[in-house]
Structure formats: structure tokens, C-alpha cells
Recover the amino acids of this structure.
């Protein structure tokens, strides 16, 4: 059933987006001129350009093909688990989905597939079906439970604190109207048991010992909720071609507390040459921590600064990362204990980065930037900025200063994700400036980085202000505009990076996010997000010009799904 749905997806939306891009004649009503005006659902769907994500399958021997096929199988079970995390009613989507075969009904079902539910993440989570508001706590908590209910429960039942705030439990109502925490291994047993089985089968076929170890430990973890050992095993993967990252990771979906992790999966093939080339950046991390624009008391100069970088071509993805906007790079694990002892690993999804540059960033730059800056956009600065964004997640405060048992995430709660994503952007660009000052990059490249940063904020604010990256980008854009680092020409409607002002303003901005994190200032974070989180009219105009012309993001069509059919 899934295979058939995927095949529909490969052909149908392409036709729709072509229709939008080429326009559909002059007819307003759409009944004349031979082309129908696309419905609202079709227009929404056209924001995602179906894009083939391919890899070089000649790199895989017969055993490795088995490993990949088993990892894809495990990923699909994790995808099913994530659906239930995103919305409990995903257990029976047919109750809300249209049944017809019209283009509109098809588009609604496709958009529901992309959003993992009936709310539009690109439009402040507005429902596109008749289901009411999105529950803030997604499928992780009872839909009628408030923050206060949760906090009160823990106050009255301190022995429940650990289980309730765990990243690996869901909260449910008990029969008597109380609350209880249920471990993921129990709540999602029907999905996690077959996922673990597929991982063990993949481990059995794997030749690389570190890969075998990771897959076995991760299979155990799915059934025991004890992830530490498998996180460490993931950090210690080496000399592996197949590079899988799968399990419960990010907390973006938990809008109530930002504490429950979502299942997701990335299956990639590693390029050892490219990975090694970037590894030299690891050597600068201590200096970059030292160069953070905050007082020294908030810096972590004693951490290991291990930052292995993996460059992969993505073969398959599933779960939370597949929802809405597609990931181009990530930095994991998030568990501060693992990060303290083992560091964290950055994974760059090279084929996805290139696809987004070609299909989205370049066309956006041409529309919103002044000509001479649009001409300087290129894939290399984009790739480097994405990499520095990931490295920067590992810089700056992990814990609230003076409170060694309170992580920054616990301090900033639901406001953490947006602040952390914006921090990674601003600290990343600031740090590239620092490396330029040290002669690692030339002045021309530094300017291209700033220009890229400006264009990229327009790419990312289109994700919507309810999404961590989208809101984070909006606050950066407003701050840079208000402080003169970005200029706007009313005549042409074009923006430009002020290359003189940029270095200092960017450092100030990075300092703002870092300080909010260091102090765990929940109120301050709220004020900052409110002050800089609104859409200026000139930016809105620019976004309107992009709408319908440049896709917001990709709807990945993984070539492996076809290739696997020839592997049997
Ligand atoms: Zn990030």
C-alpha cells in the first residue's frame, strides 16, 4: 500500500507544480483556456517540489544491499511510530481524509502525508481539514492536559518527575482522571518490535564491526528505552560506508514542553574523502568557543571538542525529519551526558543540500537580493554555512550557568528550539568571521557567507513562525534589519547585506541568543521572540513574490525505493 502511494506521489504533484510554475493561462475562473485553476489544496501541495534523491548504488556489495534494505524496513516502522507521536488519531486517518478521486482530494491526501496530519506547518499549523486546533503536545500528552496540569501533578507526585520529564515516555490519563507516564517501548510496541527485528537482521548482514555494534545496541534500546549505550556506539561508528541515524531524537514536535523525542531515520552513504577534508575544522572548535561573544563564565572550554563530521548522500529518511521541511544537516546526539563524554557528530546530507541550493536558494536570491549580491550566491558558501550551523550547535552553553543540573533546554522549555536554531545560525556565521580573521578563509568568502546568510533567512522564514527554524530565522532577519546589517531598497523591493556593518551586528546577535541560553532566561526568551518574531511588511512583500514561483521545500522521492526492486 505504501509503495503504491509513493508511486502516485512521484507523478502527480510534479504535474501540479508545473502547472503553477508555468501559470495556467489567463482564465481567472479556470474553466476556460484548457487548464483548471488549482484548488487551495493543490496550491498548498505545490509548495513542495517532488525531487528525486539519488545515490550511487554501485558502491554497495550484496551484503550492504541487504543492510540498506533492512534499514529502510526499520525506518518505515519508526515512521509509523512517529505518526502516532504527531497525532494519536493517525491510527485511523480515513476518518478525516476525503475519499474521492478528484485532483483536490488527491492533493489533500498528499499534503496530509507530507504534514503527517491535518495541520499545515507552513501556515502556523492551521488545520486544512475540519479537525480543530493542533494539540500543543501533539500525541505525547492527553490533548486536554495543560502545562499547569502537568506541573501540578509533578509537584504533588515528586516521585513521578523523572518518568514524566523523560524524553522517552508519553503521558496518558489513567482511568481515575490522573496522569501516568508510559515508556515508548510499551506505547509503541507494535511499531518498535518489528523495527528492532529489522535492525538485528541488518546487524547480522553488516561487515563493519562498529556498524554491527550500533545496530544491535539500538535494537536493544528501542525495546528497553535505555539509549545511552547506543548513542555512544553511534558516536563511535568508523570506517563505515553505510551511515544510519535512527531512533528517538529531536523534541521539536512537543510544543508543550519541548521534552519528548520524536522517532526519525536517516540512512546515508558516507563519503570518507569529503568527511576527512572537513575534519580539520574540529581543530578550531576550542578557539571558536573562546571567541564566542559572551562573558567567559558562560564558556565551556573544558569540553572534549570532539566533532566528527560525516558527509553523506542520503538514501532514505523517515519519521519526524520527513515531515514538512526536509533536513539538510544535523548534529546529534542531543543527550548532554553523551555530548559531554563523547562530543557530538555532525552529518551533512550532501545530495539534499545540493538539491535545495539548485531548486530553492538560488532562485530566492535572484528574487530578493540586489543583482550584484544575487550573482555571488554559490553552493560552496551555502554548504560551509550549513556545516558551521551544525558545528555551532556544539558551541555555547549546555547548562544554565550556575545550575549544573538544569540543561538550557529545561531552562528555556518550549522557547528553546527557536533560540537554539537561531543561535546555531548566528554563531556559525560569527565563527566563520573569526576563522577569516585567522586567515582560514579569504575576505571574499566572508562576504559570500553574509550574502548567503541573508538569502537563506528568506528560505527559512517560509517554514512559518510556528517552526523552530522559521521563527529563529525571522528573529535574525528583524534584528539584522533593525540594526542596519541588511538594507532594503523600496524602489526595487530588493534587500542587500551591508558588508561593512555585518560582522559586528552578527556578533551582537549571536551574543543575544547565547546569553538567553546561559541564563536560562525563559521570560527574556519570550520577550525576544515576541519583539523580533513579527513579519515586517517589506519582507512579506518579498515572500509574496516568491509564492507560487519558488517551491518552499522538497518532497523527496527516494531512488532507493525503485532500486531495491532490482536487488532481490
Ligand atoms: Zn540546527
Amino acid at each position: 500500500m505504501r509503495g503504491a502511494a509513493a508511486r502516485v506521489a512521484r507523478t502527480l504533484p510534479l504535474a501540479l507544480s508545473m502547472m503553477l510554475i508555468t501559470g495556467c493561462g489567463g482564465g481567472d475562473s479556470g474553466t476556460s483556456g484548457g487548464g483548471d485553476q488549482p484548488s487551495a489544496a493543490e496550491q498548498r501541495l505545490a509548495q513542495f517540489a517532488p525531487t528525486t534523491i539519488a545515490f550511487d548504488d554501485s558502491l554497495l556489495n550484496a551484503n550492504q544491499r541487504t543492510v540498506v534494505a533492512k534499514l529502510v524496513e526499520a525506518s518505515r516502522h519508526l515512521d509509523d511510530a512517529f505518526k502516532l507521536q504527531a497525532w494519536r488519531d493517525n491510527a485511523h486517518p480515513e476518518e478525516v481524509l476525503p475519499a474521492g478521486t478528484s485532483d483536490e482530494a488527491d492533493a489533500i491526501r498528499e499534503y496530509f502525508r507530507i504534514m503527517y496530519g491535518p495541520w499545515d506547518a507552513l501556515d502556523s499549523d492551521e488545520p486544512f481539514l475540519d479537525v480543530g486546533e493542533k494539540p500543543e503536545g501533539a500525541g505525547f500528552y492527553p490533548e486536554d492536559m495543560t502545562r499547569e496540569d502537568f506541573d501540578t501533578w509533578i509537584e504533588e507526585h515528586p516521585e513521578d518527575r523523572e518518568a514524566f520529564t523523560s524524553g522517552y515516555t508519553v503521558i496518558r490519563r489513567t482511568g481515575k482522571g490522573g496522569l501516568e507516564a508510559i515508556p515508548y517501548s510499551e506505547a509503541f510496541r507494535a511499531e518498535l518490535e518489528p523495527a528492532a527485528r529489522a535492525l538485528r537482521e541488518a546487524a547480522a548482514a553488516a561487515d563493519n564491526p562498529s556498524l554491527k555494534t550500533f545496530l544491535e545496541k539500538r535494537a536493544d534500546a528501542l525495546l528497553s528505552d535505555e539509549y545511552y549505550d547506543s548513542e555512544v556506539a553511534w558516536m563511535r561508528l568508523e570506517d563505515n560506508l553505510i551511515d544510519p541515524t535512527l531512533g528517538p531524537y529531536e523534541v521539536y514536535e512537543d510544543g508543550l514542553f519541548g521534552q519528548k523525542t520524536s522517532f526519525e531515520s536517516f540512512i546515508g552513504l558516507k563519503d570518507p574523502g569529503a568527511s576527512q577534508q572537513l575534519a580539520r575544522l574540529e581543530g578550531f572548535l576550542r578557539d571558536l568557543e573562546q571567541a564566542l561573544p559572551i562573558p567567559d563564565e558562560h564558556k565551556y572550554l573544558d569540553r572534549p571538542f570532539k566533532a566528527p563530521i560525516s558527509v553523506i548522500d542520503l538514501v532514505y529518511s523517515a519519521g519526524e525529519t520527513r515531515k514538512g521541511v526536509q533536513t539538510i544537516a544535523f548534529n546529534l546526539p542531543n543527550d548532554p551526558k553523551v555530548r559531554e563524554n563523547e562530543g557530538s557528530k555532525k552529518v551533512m546530507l550532501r545530495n539534499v543540500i545540493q538539491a535545495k541550493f539548485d531548486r530553492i536558494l538560488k532562485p530566492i536570491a535572484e528574487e530578493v537580493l540586489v543583482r550584484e549580491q544575487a550573482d555571488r550566491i554559490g553552493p560552496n558558501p551555502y554548504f560551509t554555512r550549513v556545516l558551521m550551523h551544525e558545528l555551532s550547535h556544539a558551541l555555547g552553553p549546555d547548562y544554565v550557568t550556575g545550575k549544573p543540573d538544569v540543561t538550557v533546554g529545561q531552562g528555556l522549555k518550549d522557547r528553546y528550539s527557536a533560540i537554539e536554531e537561531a543561535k546555531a545560525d548566528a554563531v556559525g556565521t560569527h565563527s566563520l568571521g573569526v576563522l577569516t580573521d585567522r586567515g582560514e578563509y579569504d575576505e571574499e568568502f566572508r562576504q559570500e557567507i553574509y550574502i548567503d546568510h541573508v538569502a537563506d533567512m528568506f528560505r527559512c522564514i517560509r517554514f512559518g513562525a510556528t517552526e523552530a527554524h522559521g521563527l529563529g530565522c525571522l528573529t535574525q532577519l528583524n534584528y539584522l534589519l533593525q540594526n542596519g546589517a541588511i538594507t532594503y531598497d523600496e524602489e526595487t523591493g530588493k534587500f542587500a547585506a551591508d558588508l561593512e556593518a555585518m560582522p559586528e551586528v552578527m556578533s551582537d546577535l549571536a551574543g543575544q541568543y547565547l546569553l538567553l541560553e546561559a541564563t536560562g532566561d525563559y521570560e527574556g526568551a519570550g520577550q525576544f521572540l515576541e519583539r523580533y518574531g513579527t513579519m515586517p511588511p517589506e519582507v512579506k512583500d518579498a515572500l509574496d513574490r516568491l509564492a507560487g514561483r519558488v517551491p518552499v521545500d522538497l518532497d523527496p522521492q527516494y531512488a532507493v525505493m525503485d532500486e531495491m526492486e532490482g536487488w532481490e
User: Anything to note?
Assistant: Residues 1-34 have pLDDT under 50 and may be disordered.
